[in-house]
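Worked Example 4.2. Consider the chain below.
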Amino acid sequence: MSALSSVSGDTRELPFPDWMRAVQTRIEATLSRLLPAAEAIPARLHQAMRYASLGGGKRVRPLLAFAAGELSNGAPEKLEIVSCAVELIHAYSLVHDDLPCMDDDVLRRGRPTCHVEYDEPTALLVGDSLQSLAFELLAREQLGNPECQLEMLRLLTHASGSRGMAGGQAIDLDAVGRSLDQPELELMHALKTGALIRAALMLGALCGEPLAGKAGEALDRYAKRAGLLFQVVDDILDCTASTATLGKTAGKDAAAEKPTYVSLMGLHNAREFAAELRAQALESLAIFGERGRRLIELTDFITHRKF
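Applying the procedure from the previous section yields the following structure tokens:
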């Protein structure tokens, strides 16, 4: 059975916005079930974990995982677990990124950031706990044979660590107030943003039949282009959208003198670069034919999103 046919009834023929809402609803419900209950001791920590993870966000990474599952006939009950694991890592990264010692932000998804709503020590523990829960899910659930499950754990640990998301954040912090050339900026974002997007896609594909040879290579090429595209669009939105639209502080990267694609190449050229990345991403999907339809639709959603 197709992954999409079980998101919420038969969704294979749903228009893209309806399919997207069906996956988002499923992930919200699954996260709510998998997170510790708000009243469980230590209650304040568990309430803060739920605050940071539920009730907001586009769930782009779970959407990508479910769409990649279409390529390999991934089982929906497996896809929802790997999607939640990736989303927990993403949520933890946002909590830590917003701390005063990092990006020092007070608004996330239209609400006070976790350390503002609770306090800094609680926010630090929230991030630690969300990260731990993500790996616990991949270790305890039956997601495939032992080799496949170990590969899933390897993918997510690599994407989260010093050679992935954390490493990208370290480069970002070190780059404040100085210029990076385009290869340096691409490396930073390939780690900080792209690594987790790639992991979501690869984990989704691993929930079904193996994608061997050229198909696996094509998905990897797509993942790298899509991850970079997401960041370029993010940089464009940071200087063109309002705080109310974004749900986070607009213009903060420029104010903090952080290198972005807009500061490097200008707004017009950044938009041209995004269009080029979109074309490259879509070209990578040609091998999949109709099975790649949701990834094509997601690519356009990433490119044209307003927040």
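The radius of gyration is 18 Å. The chain has one domain: 4-304. Compare this with Example 4.1 before moving on.
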